[in-house]
Amino acid sequence: MDVIMSLNCGTSSAKYALYEMKSGTPLCRGVVERVTTGGSFIRHEVPENGEFKKEHECADHTEAIRLIFDTISGKLSADSCAICELKRIKAVGHRVVHGGHRFVKSALVTDDVYDAIVEMIDFGPLHNPANLAGIDACRKLLPSVPQVAVFDTAFFQTLPPKAYLYGCAKEWYDKYGVRKYGFHGSSHLYLSRRASAMLSKHPGRTNLVTLHIGNGISLTAVKNGRAVDHSMGLSPLEGVMMGTRSGDVDPAIIPFICRKERLNAGEVVNTWLNRKSGVFGFTGITDIRDLCARVDQGDESSMTAYELYCYKIKKYLGAYLCVLDYGVDAIVFAGGVGENGWSVRRDILQGFENVGIVLDSKKNRSACGTKAECDISSDDSRIRILVIPTNEEQVLLEDVVAILEDRYDDHTRFSYSFESSSWGTHAQSY
Q1: What pTM was estimated for this model as a whole?
Q2: In sequence order, which residues have a C-beta less than 8 Å from that of residue 211 and are 6 or more positions away?
Q3: Catalytic: which of 70, 112, 152, 410?
Q4: What is the pLDDT of residues 200-248, one digit of tens each?
Q5: Is position 152 annotated as part of the catalytic site?
Q6: Which CATH homologous superfamily contains domain 3-151?
């Protein structure tokens, strides 16, 4: 049995999963938490055996991945065994957050690709070093196994200049590459293809607004299967208010707070705007379920945060309907909140009835917690409203396998198994 491994390394974590290469059947998944910070432990789950947890110090990502390998091969416990031999792993697919303008698709990690990811650290200082640490560890522990980088930013390389350029001095773009890049690309790709299948339309003739709403939130305008605008920017900080991120703010706030709090710009951006703003900045919590419970109890700060949260998303949704000239086939909700937050969906969509988006309140409530694709539109809604559980790992898996089999191409010329089979093995370019 040949196996593909997916790996998503954060600054202090390493999430992983194993899949049978031919069928895509998941064999196990888990996470090592508190890497480098002390008190490390692994949570590991094999479908038929349940969850396995063990404390084990991991001073770096190499130790974390060695712990993962010992766990999946059954060295730590027979109950944790997913594969008998590590040689069954035929490739490791790594989520890489920032590929800049260099990558329009996933890529086999050669020395040149590795160096390019290093170059992108300026754009992704919080994420790319951790992603590289995962690649380094796998190269060390599985030196003969191919490594594949799957870039968050690749799906958005179809944005036109009017969408990706900022209104600042163009020489910043010319000299330093300052532009909108976008994130959650694998999610938006999956959502756009599944929505096309649900609508029985070719992806190249489908217009959508996809909403990935979790702790991080992004929206994408998709025209004829291609991303044409996106809410996140040079970094994931731009866009709507999120769990801990501020989203769009007046840049003049940064030097103002620097003066008032005697901080430098990096501290304001990385500590405050990235980690201590958004819902957390108003309430001290990030879980939207807890926020909704506090709203029901009449907590004033929570009510303000909830109103802001929904309003900012609603404003971007309205803008993207305009970007698509109101010729939209569907609005697609995904992510933990997008899939389960019936009240959030309701409050985002309230008022859009005049442009043909009509929610069925009963369907909206019943869609929560089903982990199933749902159409929650009213029968008279001109624009469909879909809830689709996203599956970024399926995109990663199929990209990796296609690269190994030398049949891969960028997403405008490549079809996935989760699309309608009538489009064929390889899509016509669109």
Answers
A1: 0.94
A2: 217, 218, 219, 313, 317, 331, 332, 333, 334, 335, 338, 348
A3: 152
A4: 999 999 999 999 999 899 999 999 999 999 999 999 999 999 999 999 9
A5: yes
A6: ATPase, nucleotide binding domain (3.30.420.40)
